[in-house]
Amino acid sequence: MSFELIASKRVDLGTGASRRLRHAGQVPAVVYGAGKEAVSLVLDHNTMYYALKNESFHASVLELVIDGQKEQVKVAAFQMHPYKQQVMHIDFTRV
Prior knowledge:
By secondary structure, the chain is α/β, with parallel strands linked by helices. Helix content is 23%, strand content 51%. It starts with a strand and ends with a strand.
């Protein structure tokens, strides 16, 4: 099974910016590894929430489309809200 995620780069960084993203129905994320610079991203919340419910999503190599450029990544870590059904943050590692 293959997964393709659409993301865009973040310009506003920090706690306040992340909170504004979450209130707007988006998830802050970061992609790092492979000797390249880390890139801060923003993804759609509902897409990520339902993808994380799928077991094969965690073990698959994903296609991450960042502003039109494709990268192969894996999920390194993710954080969920303690009692809400909300994804707080996701880390991706380049393959």
